[in-house]
Amino acid sequence: MNIIKSISLMFPLYKDKSTVKLMITKSSNVLRKLKRKYEIIIIDDGCPQNSGKLAREVAKKFTNIKIFSHKKNLGYGAALKTGLKKCKNDWIFMIDGDAEYDVNDLFRLLKVSKDNDLVITYRYKKKYSTNRIIISWIYNAILRLIFRIKFRDISTGSRFVSRKLVENIKLESNSPFLGAELAIKAGLAGYKVGEVGIHTFPRTFGTGSTISVKNILLTLKDMILFFFKITVK
């Protein structure tokens, strides 16, 4: 059974100017309730909306927040990798910066983490556009088929992982495929992976970047490269 003494909450920022203050406030409130050592790690992935600058202004009113910036946009997966390297605590709660996922889900992930090294999430109901639902369904179906996994929804941006696992697995993807890469490599390495169902709150402002044509192509590229790497071995 895992005894979690410290937690790092980490999220990337890109086109998330409208949710920076909300994410910092909710994250700080949730972590204080847990009464464990904590830190909040924010990665500004070359955001064109100056989200990083806004995050620094908001962070002045809170404690234990560190903000790191990429000079240019390197991609969702690259931002997560930077964040994972900067996190110092025992366990890391990875969540997107657009408030689509509820920070309060951390309480539920904590319970499941007692017997696992990684906890991923699946959405009870996908409240998105038809196109996004279809893309997500196809993506998960392909992953289940070619990697022989049984995860219900490997594409969600909310997960809880032990730093020990992260330190022992080399993550390479710079695209949104990084989440799948983490779960698949964890399973292949013998780590225990649990799942938790969650509710999501799709953004009602602007447009997200993870399902852009560019990111879909980059994700497919990373998925194919990863497939050949593990099959060759």
Describe this protein with a few key phrases.
233 residues; alpha/beta; Spore Coat Polysaccharide Biosynthesis Protein SpsA, Chain A; 7-stranded mixed β-sheet; 8 helices
Description:
With 233 residues, the chain is an alpha/beta fold. It has one domain (6-232): Spore Coat Polysaccharide Biosynthesis Protein SpsA, Chain A. Helices cover 42% and strands 18% of the residues. The chain has eight helices and seven strands, in the order βαβαβαβαβαβααβα. It has a seven-stranded mixed sheet, sandwiched between helices. Strand 2 (37-45), helix 2 and strand 3 (65-70) form a beta-alpha-beta unit.
Q: Number of DSSP helices?
A: 8
User: What is the overall silhouette?
Assistant: globular
Instruction: Specify Rg, calculated over alpha carbons.
Output: 17 Å
Helix content: 40-55%
Q: Say how many strands there are.
A: 7
The description of the largest β-sheet is: 7 strands, mixed
For the termini, the CA-CA separation is: 32 Å
How many separate domains? 1
**What's the CATH superfamily, by name?**
Spore Coat Polysaccharide Biosynthesis Protein SpsA, Chain A
Average pLDDT for all residues: 91
- Strand % is 15-25%
CATH architecture group name: Alpha-Beta Complex
Give the helices and strands as they follow along the chain.
EHEHEHEHEHEHHEH
The name CATH uses for the topology is Spore Coat Polysaccharide Biosynthesis Protein SpsA, Chain A
The stretches of 5 or more residues where confidence is low (pLDDT under 50) are: none
| CATH top level assignment | Alpha Beta
Widest β-sheet, arrangement of strands: 3-2-1-4-6-5-7
Structural class: alpha/beta
